[in-house]
Amino acid sequence: MYDNTDIQANSTQCELEQRAFITKVFVWMFFGLVITAIVAYATANNPAMLAIIYGTPFVFLGLLILEIILVAYLAGWVKKMSASTATGIFLLYAAVNGLTIAFIFLAYEISSIYITFLITAGMFGAMSLYGYVTKRDLTSWGNLLFMLLIGLILGSFINLFLNSEMVYWITTYVGIFTFVGLTAYDTQKIKEFNIIGNEGTEEDTKEAIIGALTLYLDFINLFLYLLRIFGRRK
Predict the structure, then answer these.
(1) Domain boundaries, the chain
(2) How many C-beta atoms lie closer than 10 Å to residue 12's C-beta?
(3) What does the alpha-carbon distance between residue 108 and residue 193 come to, in Å, rounded to a whole number?
(4) How far apart are CA 108 and CA 47, in angstroms?
(5) What CA–CA distance (Å, rounded) separates 226 from 177?
(6) H or E element, residue 230
(7) What are the phi and psi torsion angles at 233 (to 5°)?
(8) pTM score of the predicted model
(9) pLDDT in tens, the chain (234 residues)
(10) pLDDT given for residue 2 in this prediction
(11) Do residues 49 and 169 make contact, with C-beta atoms less than 8 angstroms apart?
(12) CA–CA gap between residue 180 and residue 219 (Å, rounded)
């Protein structure tokens, strides 16, 4: 039989492992964001690259398709690949995403980009902390947020043809609400799917990479929607 001391020790050990795992997730997410920012800024200041990416529709479309493939491949086959391969795919995705969002440095004043980034970091950090510490089960959020995400994708696609300002602003605020909610929901899920006892293994690293990718996507999307509100166009 376990006495109270053993139970408390095991609980403390689990908490320490969870904290170490979440720290690793956020470190990888940060690396991904840094790579995206560097690539985007370098691309925006390279006329030749801009001409290739944005002057040739098929190149830009190809990069978007490549992003989808990389995310799907990493999410679907991560268990069958090595930790180094999973890490490489995540960092490659972050770099490709930098190529496709370089336009923000052309469309918006750089000071407003920095301000929006800080606002995003604050909102993201607060909701992620909530998702980590709350005892409330956020599973019920999942279905609602998934439906909102599907509606957001459909609305954004339809508005490519309608070009409606009203739809644009509706999708903006729905997008912010959706990714704020997903930040808390995903953080809780990442905390829960960490397997206690495998710290330092390849599986632990791959779990951290998948968690980092999930939160990276939440952060980037929240940032882009907030930029619609706080970004000052050139």
Answers:
(1) 4-230
(2) 10
(3) 39
(4) 17
(5) 10
(6) helix 202-230
(7) -75, 150
(8) 0.92
(9) 445 554 554 556 677 788 889 999 999 999 999 999 999 999 999 999 999 999 988 999 999 999 999 999 999 999 899 999 999 999 999 999 999 999 999 999 999 999 999 999 999 999 999 999 999 999 989 999 999 999 999 999 999 899 999 999 999 999 999 999 999 999 999 988 876 667 778 898 999 999 999 999 999 999 999 999 999 998
(10) 45
(11) no
(12) 9
The dihedral through the CA atoms of 140, 143, 118, 38 has a sign that is positive
DSSP 121-173: HHHHHHHHHHHHH--S-THHHHHHHHHHHHHHHHHHHHHHHH--HHHHHHHHH
Rounded distance, CA 162 to CA 156, Å?
10
Which position has the token pair 């679907």? 76
What's phi and psi for 108, nearest 5 deg?
-120, 150
Specify the amino acid at residue 230.
F
Q: Which of 137, 66, 138, 142 is nearest to 99 (CA)?
A: 66
Under 8 Å CB-to-CB from 3, ≥6 apart: which residues? Answer: none
| Residue 84, both tokens | 């180094």
Residue 187's identity, in one-letter code, is T
The DSSP element (H or E) to which 17 belongs, if any, is helix 4-44
Which residue is listed with tokens 């990479």? Answer: 209
Instruction: Identify which of 101, 55, 111, 77 has the alpha carbon closest to the alpha carbon of residue 219.
Output: 101
Give the position of tokens 């909530």: 130
What's the 3-state SS for 93-135? HHHHHHHHCCCHHHHECHHHHHHHHHHHHHHHHHHHHHHHHCC
Taking a C-beta distance cutoff of 8 angstroms, is the pair 178, 127 a contact? no
